[in-house]
Amino acid sequence: MSGAYIMAKNVVVITGTPGVGKTVTAKRVSEMTGMRLLELGAIAQACAISGKDADRESLIISPKKLRGRIRNLIEGQEAEFIAEGHYGEIVPAELVKKAVVIRLDPIVLEGRLRARGYPEKKVKENVQAEILDACLIGAVDAFGMESVVEVDSTGLGEEALANVVSDAIRGAAGSPPGTVNWIAKLEKEGKIEKLLQ
Ligand SMILES: Nc1ncnc2c1ncn2[C@@H]1O[C@H](COP(=O)(O)OP(=O)(O)OP(=O)(O)O)[C@@H](O)[C@H]1O
Ligand SMILES: [Mg+2]
Fold it and tell me: Is the shortest distance between the CB of 156 and ligand 1 below 6 Å?
């Protein structure tokens, strides 16, 4: 495989905390744009399981295997890809032209995760990760400030969000990392302490 292929940045990553709407949005954007969809969670399940974390009732993913599989799927392809998943930073940085981090008001996220039937511990863990910008920080660490945009999905329906994310991919929407500030918002609403306990 030639170096020219390896240098081609043909992947847009869509990432964010569980429940923010990555899968629904990425599917819509893929249909709108013709970009090929890679569901990182499904790829991990299919070919990168290395064990089971009984404590957290979740599977342990081998990052090395997953990265290798993603490379195989993408490298040398002329298509443009959307890779969506909670662990967006797993996509090799040299393939990534942009990462869109979907954000959601932690209070709304909490309701959505509860409605999904998540145990309270898992709800709290994910709500706190959203408050503390965990996915955003992961994306900036992996891809650099200039490649990452945030999109606040709060109050946007599925179609509206897909439109904004598709605009963000073209550089016509979204905000630089650090724009969303849930801590300030929740402090103002007097809700921060309870959520971070
Ligand atoms: N813009 C939206 N407005 C309201 N609800 C939404 C929106 N986008 C997604 N949802 C709903 O939120 C839930 C989670 O969506 P989705 O499965 O896409 O999240 P996800 O980020 O992919 O989660 P996970 O990381 O667990 O895969 C679904 O029930 C979906 O219908
Ligand atoms: Mg999903």
Answer: yes
Q: What distance separates the 2 farthest-apart alpha carbons in the chain?
A: 56
When pLDDT is cut at 50, 70 and 90, the band that residue 16 belongs to is: very high
Number of structural domains (the chain) is 1
In the DSSP assignment, the letter for residue 93 is G
Q: Which atom of ligand 1 is nearest to the CA of 84?
A: 22
The residues near 159 (Cβ < 8 Å, ≥ 6 apart) are 28
CATH number of 43's domain: 3.40.50.300
Cβ within 8 Å of residue 169, ≥6 positions away: 12, 29, 33, 98, 100
Torsion angles phi and psi, residue 37, rounded to 5: -95, 130
CA-nearest residue for atom 11, ligand 1, is 21
Decide: 38 and 171 in contact? Cβ < 8 Å. no
For residue 152, pLDDT over 80 is answered with yes
Pocket test for ligand 1, best of 13, 17, 23 (most atoms within 8 A of CB): 23
Quick one: pLDDT at residue 54? Answer: 78
Structural domain harbouring 55: 3-196
